[in-house]
Fold this sequence. Notes:
The protein is mainly α. It has helices spanning 2-20, 23-61, 64-71, 73-79, 88-101, 105-120, 131-141, 149-157, 166-188, 222-225, 235-256, 270-296, 301-335, 338-352, 360-365, 370-384, 389-400, 404-415, 423-446, and strands at residues 213-214, 217-218. Among the domains are: 2-50 and 131-194 and 319-446, no CATH class; 234-296, no CATH class.
Amino acid sequence: MLNSIWLALLLIAVILAGITGRADALTSAALNAAKEAILNVALPLAGLMALWLGLIRLAEQAGLVTLLAGALRPVLRRLFPDVPPDHPAMGAMLLNIAANMLGLGNAATPLGLRAMQELNRLNPQPGTATNAMCTFLAINTGSLQLLPATAISVLAAHQAAQPAAIVGSALLATACSALTAVTAARLLERLRWFRADSPASGTTAQPRLPPATSQGSPSRNAGLRNPHATRPIGLAGRLLLLGYVFFFTALIVGSGFGAGNASPAPEGSVVVRLSQAVSQWAVPFLLAGFPLYAALRGVRVYEEFIRGAREGLRVAIRIMPYLVAMLVAIGAFREAGGVAWLGRVLGPVLGWIGFPTELLPLALVRPLSGSAALGVFADLVRVHGPDSLLARTAATMYGSTETTFYVLAVYFGAVGVHRIRHALWAGLITDAVAMIASVWICRWLFS
Length: 447
């Protein structure tokens, strides 16, 4: 599937550039996209991968990921029936989904890549996406969003009277997209065209579990699957953890009500302010919380963090070619006029369902490029005003959808999956539902 999509994007881009006389623009876009893929995407992502996979390594070795996954085991078991309930993938997926819900995009991607690595350990057919992988990526595309921080920031920068007014609309829109993501993935995986091929032997495929040892050393997941191998937390440690949680709770509540800040409290309801405070303090809480918990369980925190960070750098290097390939094709397609061409083709249909034509460029660009979509969104806010219905609808659309092609390239590239089966279609269906739902919900809430 990715082979056909990538080739189609390049061929259509060259043909359109020849028709419209934009060959020079296409060349510049392709070269700039290749440079941006490494300098502005892959290298910053490498640092983030090292940080977050180092922290996840600590959480694994201390048994914290298993503890978190166990709390939501009934829900995860229904969403991912092919994944064993006690497998490390469950905890990694849970952390990724939680990061997406809080709007922590920088943390969500490394956590998602780690989840894909763990899911690939269960893959009976390396190179082919499993049902769990496709469902997981669909959920990433349509993740429930508690706080669309970027969209709120753009509205606030343009002096919106109530920049946080879109929190409710984004929550409703992402609720629709999350339900669509799971439903679409489940329905599409049953279609004959998207079924995974049976192994050549004709036997039933069994998951590939990681080895227990490697050259006489314990498996890197031994601490995760056997959390009792680390020492129990004593009374003093429990009191320390309780005090730590209480301290951050006081910070969140104080920030939510405007206390303890030099700047005034953000506009909006108490729920909105508390949500923003949670988003603000979530990363600091994890930065110290995971090492503290691991240290209390007897984990050598610095050494284990370095091991996880080293793995993060290897993953970042592995996905660089995939990023270059996808971003070059998308940049060439967009600069050659492919988005405008799609707009002319889809315009009548979207007009029939009540979709504003002014929002069509954002809807077309959003699955392809996050930076381009942000530029289109900011321009809409500037032209139509930050408090207009169109601007709030655009903000809801931007905050409730994802760059589907980027997610597919990065996540599947990290584990060497080339046959993506129904993952793309599930993601695009989820994007379409989120965009249409955003229009209808905003019209209902703000008109």
